[in-house]
Amino acid sequence: MITVNHFLVLSAILFAIGLYGALAKRNAVAILMGAELMFNAINIALVAFTKFVPPVRTGLLTGQVFALFVLTVAAAEAALGLGVIFAIYRRRETIDAERLNLMKW
Amino acid sequence: MTDPSAVTAFYVLATLSVLAGLGVVISRNLFHSSVFLVAVFLAVAGLYLVLQAEFLFAVQILIYAGAIAILLIFAVMLTQHVERGNPGNLQWPVALFVAALLCGAMSVVLWNAVFPTGQIQQLGIPTTEVIAQNLFGPFVLPFEFASVLLLAAMVGAIVMAREDRP
């Protein structure tokens, strides 16, 4: 018997793993990977909600449409983030987030 | 969802996604991390299939496992940091504590939460039809904004990543 809670707990675990990856890594590409993991976790929760707790007023499958939008934003974020990473790498020869402290106080 | 095959598929795919996710953050080699990330994307795609979201299953494989994973692997290859490993930064113990706390708290709360679960939808029709009606009906404005966002991201990525010419 699989309920919505199973999917939500899985989503929470994946989100926490992605959060750790985004917070604890030096390499900027690894930080982006953590962000992608978090996006995936959120999408699981959205799709599970629209399956098990059907929205009453807004019609069927609203969560899947939200998941599509999250996916769009994730794609845009990946493309832009990698553009920024390449620009930084060309100028500074490193993508170590610890050493990108130009704007630090 | 009591279908035994669905239950088995859920547990297998959930275990696979969590293990591969741990591989993403634990692996010493950044290239291995990206391969583990592809495994996470594929396992999540399988979970969409368990949830009868076959359109999202296809989109997940095409966009995440296809496009985004390739972009990330390109970035790993082009920035020459593979051989230097994938170390944590100075704040990794704090990050580990925060992530573990969040995982534990959210798991306990979500496991005990009670949602007004109606009758589980048995979607016989292809879900693409319903998604299209949603996208071009109530969600048409966010849909158009999404295309503008993608265009802006594309132009921005080109501007960011091109060579600086005087």
Percent of residues in helices of chain A: over 70%
Please tally the helical runs of chain B, counting DSSP H or I stretches of 4 or more residues: 6
SSE arrangement of chain B, N to C: HHHHHH
**What number is the mean pLDDT of chain A?**
87
Distance between the termini of chain B: 62 Å
* Main sheet attributes: strand count, strand direction, barrel closure of chain A: none
Describe the global form of chain B: globular
Q: Give the number of DSSP strands of chain A.
A: 0
Helix content of chain B: over 70%
Strand content of chain A: under 5%
Biggest interface found = A-B, 75 and 92 residues
Q: Averaged pLDDT of chain B, please?
A: 86
Written description of the protein model:
The complex is a heterodimer of chains A (105) and B (166). Chain A is mainly alpha-helical and 105 residues long. Chain A has 3 helices and no strands. Chain A has helices spanning 4-24, 28-52, 62-92. In chain A, helix 1 runs antiparallel to helix 2. Chain A starts with a helix and ends in a 13-residue tail after the last helix. With 166 residues, chain B is mainly α. Chain B is built from 6 helices and no strands. In chain B, helix 2 (30-50) runs antiparallel to helix 3 (54-78). The radius of gyration of chain B is 20 Å and the shape is globular. The termini of chain B are far apart. The model of chain B has no long low-confidence stretch (mean pLDDT 86). Chains A and B meet through helix 1, helix 2 and helix 3 of A and helix 1, helix 2, helix 3, helix 4 and helix 5 of B.
